[in-house]
C-alpha cells in the first residue's frame, strides 16, 4: 500500500483508505466492534506485517490482517528503480498535506 490511513467514524467499522489510489473511497471496510454501543478508540498499523490492531473503549483488541489484494506493490518500470521505505511514504504524505495547506491559504 502506498499511503494508507484508517478512519473509524462513530460507527463500529474501520475504513481503510490509500491516498495513492483514491482519497474519496475506502479500499475496504470492516466491522470491528460486536456491539454498536462500543466505540473504537485506538488503531495501530504494524510497520512490518500487513496487520492493523484496533482497540475499543471496553478494552477489547481486534487484530485485522489486510487482504493480499490490498498489499500489491506498484510494478517497476523498465530502467527505473522503485524507492521503498518509510522516508518515501513520509515524503508522499508531506506532499499531499502541503497541497491541502496551499488550497486553504488561497481561500
Keywords, please?
microtubule, repeat, 20% helix, WD repeat, cell projection, three-stranded antiparallel β-sheet, cytoplasm
How would you describe the overall organization of this protein?
This is Dynein axonemal intermediate chain 1. InterPro entries: Dynein_IC (IPR050687). The relative contact order is 0.16. The model has no long low-confidence stretch (mean pLDDT 72). A hairpin with a 5-residue loop joins strand 1 and strand 2. This protein has a domain of 71 residues. It is globular. Helix content is 20%, strand content 29%. The protein has 107 residues and is of the alpha+beta class. It starts with a strand and ends with a helix. Strands 1-2-3 form a three-stranded antiparallel beta sheet, with no helix packed on it. Strands 4-5-6 form a three-stranded antiparallel beta sheet, with no helix packed on it.
**Strand-residue proportion:** 25-35%
Rg, nearest Å = 16 Å
Structural class: alpha+beta
Distance between the termini: 32 Å
Amino acid at each position: 500500500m502506498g499511503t494508507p490511513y484508517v478512519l473509524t467514524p462513530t460507527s463500529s467499522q474501520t475504513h481503510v483508505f490509500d491516498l495513492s489510489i483514491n482519497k474519496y473511497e475506502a479500499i475496504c471496510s470492516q466491522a470491528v466492534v460486536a456491539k454498536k454501543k462500543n466505540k473504537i478508540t485506538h488503531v495501530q498499523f504494524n510497520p512490518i506485517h500487513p496487520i492493523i490492531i484496533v482497540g475499543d473503549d471496553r478494552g477489547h483488541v481486534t487484530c485485522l490482517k489486510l487482504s493480499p489484494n490490498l498489499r500489491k506493490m506498484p510494478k517497476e518500470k523498465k530502467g527505473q528503480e522503485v524507492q521503498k521505505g518509510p522516508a518515501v511514504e513520509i515524503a508522499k504524505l508531506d506532499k499531499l498535506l502541503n497541497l491541502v495547506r496551499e488550497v486553504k491559504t488561497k481561500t
